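Let's practice the habit of predicting before peeking. Look at the sequence and jot down your guess about where helices and strands might fall. Then scroll down.
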Amino acid sequence: MRKLSNIFGGSEEETREKKTRPTAEAVRQQSQRQHMEDAPEEDEEFSGLRDVSQVRYEEDMLSSDKFFDYGVTYVKTYKLRSLADVQKVSHELNEGNIVLADISMLNDRDPMELKRTIDQIKGICRGIGGDVAGIGDTMHVIITPSNIKIWREKV
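Done guessing? Here is the structure:
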């Protein structure tokens, strides 16, 4: 029976080389061991605690770079005057911001353009996993990015 590596063009040397490469888990464990070896000498008197993993304080997590990568979410207001304003809304959603849009000007000028604009916004929200909802009886809609959902109370 032939080996799959021979069928798909891999040589036995390449196969052996792949087997000897360390996995991501092995590299992580090695770096943890090295970090533990670099620890200060004063910790050695507590030899019973060497096997316990370090617990990070909340302050450490909040100051880490990963926390700040998420950025700030803004609530921005726009008056939609035409179908072209949908691009602004799309840009804000891609930036992770929430948009409160006043659609009264579109309704007064051309109800069909309002319908097309709302359909465009719904399509964008569907595409990015966002949400859109009307606010009461006013001519305002709230449009959110994928990480924010709108809670709807059933009456």
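How did you do? The first helix runs from residue 4 to 7.
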